[in-house]
Specification:
The chain has one domain. The protein is built from five helices and no strands. It starts with a helix and ends in a 12-residue tail after the last helix.
Length: 107
């Protein structure tokens, strides 16, 4: 999920970077590209996903045209923030991989 979301954000960053000469669009493109690279690595995943959600929702309200892709990416970022980075990530190596075992209630 991290890789799919990261590749979609990279594609969005490239499109935004070539969209216009404005400083704000290039800054957003750089921010989205940095978020995508950190997602590829799996570093600080919940924090980076919150940053990506803010950027995507800002894009929904600031840009005209079809905004469904921004809403989709924001929803995927929210899901990834709740799920966590996974076992093969820098976060798992640094902080450990958490596993929750649900025990049966015995009455």
């Amino acid at each position: 999920m991290r890789l799919v979301l990261g590749s979609a954000l990279i594609q969005q960053a490239v499109v935004k970077f070539h969209a216009g000469p404005g400083f704000d669009t290039r800054l957003v493109a750089f921010l989205v590209g940095a978020v995508a690279m950190l997602l590829f690595l799996g570093l600080w995943t919940p924090i980076i996903c919150v940053v990506a959600i803010v950027v995507e929702l800002w894009s929904v309200f600031s840009e005209s045209g079809d905004t469904r892709i921004y809403i989709l990416l924001a929803a995927l970022c929210a899901a990834l923030a709740l799920l966590g980075p996974g076992a093969w990530s820098v976060d798992a190596r640094l902080f450990g991989w958490k596993r929750i075992d649900i025990r049966d209630r015995k009455s």
